[in-house]
Amino acid sequence: MDNSVSQTARPDGRQADEMRPIRWELNPAPAAAGSVLVALGATRVLCAVMIEEGVPRWMREQRVEGGWLTAEYRMLPYATASRTSRESTLGRLEGRTMEIQRMIGRALRAVTDLRALGARTVWVDCDVLQADGGTRTAAISGAWTALALALRRAQTEGRLPGGILRDSVAAVSAGLFGGAAVLDLCYAEDALADADLNVVFTGRGDLVEVQGAAERQTFSRSHLDAVLDLARRGAEQWRNAQEKMLREAETPPAARPT
């Protein structure tokens, strides 16, 4: 394979290093402490955060100081062309669901000072309204934004101290498609990719998690480096989008751009 960025035409016409458009809707769930509806191309995920007093029993029993943050992830039945049964009707969580929600929780805890949170539990809910690849990366990136909004609101109201979030966090997919590296795989690419990675970065550029595997053939270290370089660039775009969203959230509704 050629180790360069792919020159193969992508299904949606993007360049190999081009992300899908990122769009936000602020406060789609008013009862939550913080919420956003994030769209990554055709993928749309509703992310909401609520903060409750108290911690899980295991923390009390083990006398663990501070608070806890946990995430739940669901793909709604109508998120794909073929209806997906609600897992509540199956009586169990599918393995993919458990894997993704644990990944979301790990990513957010990596940049959260749980001791400073105090004896509280932060609940993060990510519901996929429409899936076209990248649902877990959109969920992580959107969930951090909703968390930042929720903590900022609690700080403004005097219920929490500042400094609980130590950094931002964002996730992006990248892989090998058509023989070389591409950024932010849509579903059509993900289904045919030679390799697919999901990478989580902090705002400083440190790695939190790397998930990946070859799908049809092995890949070299140089391929991996090319994919990770693209992923880092994608995470920077997410960080810029997150910062812009948080700035807009501070702007009175009447003054926000339409």
What does this molecule look like?
The chain has 258 residues and is α+β, with helices and mostly antiparallel strands. The chain has a single domain (24-250), classed as Ribosomal Protein S5, domain 2 (2-Layer Sandwich), CATH 3.30.230.70. Helix content is 32%, strand content 28%. It has helices at 57-61, 87-90, 95-109, 114-117, 135-156, 187-190, 221-249, and strands at 22-26, 34-40, 43-53, 68-75, 120-130, 169-177, 180-183, 195-202, 207-214. The strands form two sheets. A five-stranded mixed beta sheet has the order 1-2-3-5-4. A four-stranded antiparallel beta sheet has the order 7-6-8-9, sandwiched between helices. Strand 6 and strand 7 form a beta hairpin.
Question: Can you tell me the residue ranges where pLDDT is under 50 for at least 5 consecutive residues?
Answer: none
- What characterizes the major β-sheet? 5 strands, mixed
- Strand line-up across the major sheet: 1-2-3-5-4
Cα-atom radius of gyration: 19 Å
Number of strands: 9
Rounded mean pLDDT score = 91
Number of helical elements: 7
